[in-house]
Design a protein that fits this description.
Radius of gyration of chain A: 19 Å
Oligomer: homodimer
Number of strands of chain A: 15
Largest sheet of chain A: 9 strands, mixed
Largest interface: A-B, 22 and 21 residues
Helix content of chain A: 10-25%
Shape of chain A: elongated
Strand content of chain A: 35-45%
């Protein structure tokens, strides 16, 4: 309502997004990994369960206290790789291309969960090693949407949107995949290469467009 | 002329850029450093001159065989930092934000050469150390243009253009600064964060727009 009055006083029409059901949140996903309960036990010991370090914006999702060491095929290492919980039915590591180049692995761009014919790697935890045969990807940039958000923006699951990011290193990211589910809250996930390319800060203006 | 005939046969108008005086080259600048002759001597020994490893696209510019170790304020290190020649009148290091975060330095976005009040660092070479008081920056994304290119695109030095990059991670980079000089060849320089955000490959379609 305050916003409505301010725009009225300025003699300007209310921006279209002022009527959006939810505010737009844009978060940078640093490299991380999703694990099965079996992988967690192999790496951290029998019966081990992930512990919550920080709750994430999507309901029930968390960054775990547990981290791993990733060993690449050229004996290069990424330390302190964060695990996200809860456990899933497959093991998947999401890296930025800068990480993959540092590691010496050529990784494909994939929708999360679609890991057929992707490279694997070796994981090292305090209890032991775990060999991932596949699962190292760069995740497709995407936006989580509640059906109300999808209706407001006029899109459906699988559609692509654009994210216009302002500031001194302004960028527009195309091919932002819409993922719609009643359990989702409106949130864009980009990786560290994308976040650093545009120097995304908490106050950087962002606009989601069809 | 071949292009002209192909488009004619297809019954399509020739794209506007087909009439451009020069092809558009987009290159990723990995982190690198520019040094004064004094810094080169301090690091590599009295009388040492940079040697050519690879000529770059801009006339007279080269990647030197010589590399350095950069030591950041938190004892973190970047090895094999490439020196670009020839020597300049000031010392400057250009990093991507991902590099700066790894190093633990907060670096500003600057036009090359504008290094007042920027952070410094310690450089280590085979002969000795060299302390840079200032000069560590992220370089503003920019396009080198010959006056003919500027005339074709209808811009002048200091103007900002946009670079539309296609492919599976398509991105449009705004605020691409025009630098116009009769010695320049048409070439866009982006950094590794920008190049990895859009996965720039030799065959990725790129278009420069006002």
């Amino acid at each position: 309502m305050v916003r409505q009055v301010v725009y009225q006083r300025l003699g300007k029409p209310l921006p279209r997004t002022a009527g959006a059901p939810n505010p737009l949140i844009v978060n940078v996903s640093a490299r991380h990994c999703h694990l099965t309960p079996e992988a967690v036990e192999a790496l951290f010991g029998p019966g081990h369960k992930l512990t919550v370090f920080k709750w994430l914006y999507q309901e029930g999702q968390f960054a775990a206290k547990e981290t791993l060491t990733l060993v690449g095929p050229r004996s290069r290492v990424i330390s302190n790789l964060r695990i996200l919980g809860p456990c899933r039915s497959l093991n998947q590591i999401e890296l930025a291309y800068t990480d993959a180049i540092a590691l010496g692995v050529d990784i494909p761009l994939r929708l999360s969960g679609n890991i057929a014919d992707t490279p694997g790697c070796m994981l090292m935890g305090p209890h032991g090693f775990f060999a991932m045969k596949t699962g190292v990807i760069r995740a497709l940039r995407h936006v989580h949407m509640h059906p109300d958000d999808a209706a407001f923006y006029g899109v459906k699951g699988g559609d692509e949107m654009r994210l216009k990011i302002g500031g001194p290193c302004a960028v527009t990211l195309d091919k932002m995949l819409c993922r719609v589910d009643p359990s989702f809250k409106l949130e864009v996930h980009i990786d560290t290469d994308e976040g650093n390319a545009c120097d995304l800060q908490p106050d950087t203006p962002c606009e989601l467009m069809r």
